[in-house]
Sequence to fold (514 residues):
Amino acid sequence: MNWVHSDAMKNEKPLILIIDDEESLRDGCRQALEKSGYSVIATGEGVEGIKIARENKPEIAFVDLKMPGISGMEIIDVLSKEIPDIILIMITGYATILSAVEAIQKGAYDYLPKPFSPDQLRSVARRGLDHRALKMETRRLREEKEQMEKIFITFVSHEMRSPLVVIRQYIESLKAIAGDRFDKDVTEIIERCAIRIQGLEELIEHWLDISRIEAGTFVQKKETINLSHILTRIEEEMAPVCKAKGISLEINVPDKLLDIIGDEESLVRVFTNIIGNATKYTPQGGKITISAQREDYFIIVSIADTGSGIPHDKLPFIFEPFFRVKGKEERHEGSGLGLTFCKKIMESHGGEISVTSTEGEGTTFLLKIPALLSSTGVSQTSS
Amino acid sequence: MTMAAKKKILLIDDDKDFLFATKLILEKGGYEVFMAEDGKTGVEMWKSVSPDLAIIDMMMETWGEGFSVLNKIRATDTGKDTPLFMLSAVDLQGPYQSFEPPENFPKVNKVLHKPVKADDLLRFIAHELGA
Fold:
């Protein structure tokens, strides 16, 4: 076992590449670094250096800034893009702040002005390796955390929902085997239980959606679509709901609306959420008006109702999770996460959601989505 | 009213309560119900009982076990043409959304979403078994 171990240790010697056209400097560096237990490959030629780096993936590369042929800056540029986690240190005989800044912008970790002592060389190599280890560890932890979050979401979705599904299935079987023998109030109790459980399922569902958006695992198929298509779907879906509540639904969309990039399903959910809310707070005989128009580089959709409105002091909070406008005694059904979901979806589209409201007159939601500007028909695009 | 033997239905699901709840509905519908709590038992029971229809949970123990059970049942002599239902409690946004059955995927007569309404369940079964 000891043999294997020592062998493995030998292989773990950090590999340092030195690219410098000055032979004495290469030799000096090699000796200083090998004495400290590093493996060293040195070359006096830039293109050769890049080739060696690609093949051997060194942990650190010292690169001379000024060499004949390819410049140190170019080497740093190439290696920082191609070799993952490589620590690049610029060696320079005429260290200027400007060249150092440029090298660091191109991905160098540090620079070493000539002349330098073996101790300085070893110290910067040691720091570079520590930095590299930390960077890799951070990335590993971040990936692990993301993985855990994904697993957690999947776990929750299965473990929390299964019991609820089973309870609802039991309620179904209860109704099937004994429903005709129940008194009216027993049936009502069972119905109410079923409704509350369904509400809990929806709550979990919405919470999961929001967690998924935050974890970046919410599945969205972003493609070029036109809001008029989405609003046609909305009309089909929501007109019957409005009709049942005695509310009129009016949709005004200009003939030619610019396309957007978006996920149809989640945008449809944004609309059904907001319109669904509007139907809850709008009395019979009221009206919900949806209109869309272009404003600069955005499409603005307004969803206005003639409902009870939201008190001024509560407006800033309505997109917060579980915030409810109404008091407990007049609680409406809903997960309390609908508008939070809408906000997150709008943000994931590079858009915004905002609200204005006057108590007793109604509420207007504004959705702002970046329009897809075609190269023709738009005289100028300043960005 | 005929006095024909009751039609047999095999339920395969790893949730005991789901099995029991569904069994009550099926028995109320006049079927004889057999239950299996895992895929392996399900396939064995399929061979020994020769049911007229089977309902298989898509997501047992491991994702995909339901599909492997489906494959095995379809590969048996009696399983070629027997109606098979799949059960899913998988939400549309879940990690399994991307699952797309391959070209030669065995036939599923109906995909049911949990929980299943008693009326719907009995209606779908009656439709398949022509009761």
Notes: Residues 8-89+108-129 of chain B form a domain with the Rossmann fold fold (CATH 3.40.50.2300). Residues 16-28 of chain B form the longest helix (13 residues).
